[in-house]
Amino acid sequence: MTILTSSGLNTIMESDLSKPELFAGRIKDIFGGKAGDVLEAISHPRYETFRLNLNKSGVKEVLRKLRGLGFEIREGVLPGSYVNLSSLNGSRISQTEFFKNGIVYVQGLSSMLDVVVLDPKPDEKILDLCASPGSKTSYIASMTGVPGNIYAVENNSARFFSLKKNLALQGFDGVVTVKSNAVGLINRYPEFREFFDKILVDVPCSNEGNVRFVDKDPLKFWNPKLPKKISMLQKKILASGYNMLKPGGFMVYSTCTYSFEENEAVINWVLKKFTDLEAVEVTLPFKELSHVRGITEHRGEKVDSRISGALRILPGNYFDGFFISLLQRQSVQEH
Questions:
Q1: Catalytic: 205?
Q2: Keyword Transferase: yes or no (predicted)?
Q3: Cα four-point dihedral sign 244, 246, 248, 252
Q4: Which of 71, 69, 198, 227 is nearest to 123 (CA)?
Q5: CATH 3.30.70.1170: does it fit domain 48-106?
Q6: pTM of full prediction above 0.70
Q7: Distance (Å, whole) CA 188 – CA 181
């Protein structure tokens, strides 16, 4: 697959470009001098990463059995995370009985990172607003140990039952599951208004961060027109989250995509709409992570300078491309 990355790309009409060339141009437009690193990274596969279900077995026992099956495993940088170094050779933990029995849960480290940023506590009411298939919900439950304080929302019937199945398989069926549209949720459940201490808003997106050129037909579902369209839905979901967040509470907005329209532009919109929302700088729990900060100017469009505190995770051997913004609703005294 040929990827055009030269500066001459800007002088070519987008309609004349192939999908790979157009995608590469979008990456260059977003990341500038870092674009080469991004394109190089997504030309290689990512290691399979996972975490262990401590409800079902001990860490040492599971790791010993997995290694006995021939897996080469190292500890990951996030709490409870592990890397399957054998995955590039085709040895997938997702094909083992440990995965099928819910003892091991395969999950990307980028997906886990926004839960770490949310920093859930046992005594907090926590909402996962776009929850299926339950990866982040179950990680929250494993970190707090109090599933009954966690609410998980999913509207699609098939995805809702997949969510419930995954939570039950891991022993977290105490999570409160809600089959409902995330937009306007408080119209159906008015008791949710300003009810939650922390809310995770990992919205549906164009999934650009999951593109790997080593995959078969990696851009099959990529549509360069989708970011502008889907950003309208993302804004509605984020506004819904705001209405359910307690004053003083924290909300994480995240996507697994690169586009400015779905990331910084959405945060800029919500900061203008709700003046008691503050963009908080995302701090990393470790240093070994390739990232850049939120973009505050794109194609001549300037956004709120506080958005520079957001985090753009660059793809690599262990992480996929991801965007994370931390927001806090100010208390009445602060506002």
A1: no
A2: yes
A3: negative
A4: 198
A5: yes
A6: yes
A7: 9
Residue with tokens 């729990």: 285
Q: Nearest Cα to 171, choosing from 147, 136, 135?
A: 147
Closest CA to 201 of 166, 172, 239: 239
Strands, DSSP E only, in 129-219? 150-154, 176-179, 196-202
Sign of the dihedral defined by the CA atoms of residues 212, 263, 114, 35, in that order: positive
Q: Residue for token digits 């707090």?
A: 144
Closest CA to 49 of 20, 17, 86: 86
Q: Which listed residue (30, 201, 256, 324) is catalytic?
A: 256
Distance (Å, rounded) from C-alpha 319 to C-alpha 41? Answer: 10
- The CA distance from 49 to 83, in Å, is 4
As a whole number of angstroms, the distance between CA 125 and CA 196 comes to 5
**128 is annotated as contributing to ligand binding:** no
Q: 154 labelled as ligand-binding? A: yes
pLDDT level of residue 54 (50, 70, 90 thresholds): confident
> For the segment 87-109, what is each residue's pLDDT rounded down to a tens digit?
999 999 999 999 999 999 999 99
Correct CATH for 109-329 of 2.40.10.340, 3.60.21.10, 3.40.50.150, 3.30.70.20? 3.40.50.150
- How far is Cα 290 from Cα 246, in angstroms, rounded to an integer? 33
Residue 246, helix vs strand vs coil? strand
